[in-house]
Amino acid sequence: MIPLLAGVFGLLVGSFLNVVVHRVPEHGSLLPRSACPRCGHRIRAWDNIPVLSWLVLRGRCRDCRGPISARYPLVEAGTAVLFALTARWTGASWSLPALLFLVAVSVALALIDLDVHRLPDVIVLPSIGVGVLLLAVASWNPGGVSDWGALLRAVLGGLALCGFYLVVALVYPGGMGLGDVKLAGLLGLYLTWFGWPMLLVGGFAGFVLGGVFAVSLLIARRATKGSGIPFGPWMLLGAAVGIVAGRSIWSAYLGLIGF
Length: 259
Hints:
By secondary structure, the protein is mainly α. The protein folds into two domains: about 1-90, no CATH class; about 115-259, no CATH class. Helix content is about 70%, strand content about 0%. It has nine helices and no strands. Helix 1 (about 1-25) packs parallel to helix 4, helix 7 crosses helix 8 (about 195-220) and helix 7 crosses helix 9.
């Protein structure tokens, strides 16, 4: 039941993330009820049911019949799937709330970075604080064995990855922004909570995935050497690889080199 409940919760969170992705880059408030950007009519509560409302309305505004982007239900459904998979991976664990929060933040940041090539401080910086608190609860592990060493390791790992990205940004300012540096602090925190191998694999995977994507665009002539390619989504995807498969990848690497 946990993955099912997490999936339903993910639908609701995905609906909120659509608002975040749309309004935060424009410095808009998250409080007003959503309205159609074409006719200005407020969206009714029964037209705000994730995925279902879009299907019932056939992707059009009830008032002006203007088209509603398919991205809205895709974000809602995608967030639901990611929440369910995360819950299935962790099971009934105190790490689940921390990881669900990371998933939600990752969806929002990836879409915003793809849209406007920015990683807003208003999302990244508070997320670091919330991440520390949620991982502290997971380290405390009420009802089980506490592991405060994991929290200390997480903080050190976050500082380490953030510092590494800062050096890269200073050496090559055109290739990396300070938004990436701050996001590295958040991802390093989570990766190292699970272990140092996760940090090494997850941090390296972001560069590999981003590099492969950039080279693919160059080969396909969809970009030039001077094109700006958002790196945030690849950092986030690399962190996911590190958390889920970092230990096995690191063990396979050590075995390959004879350790």
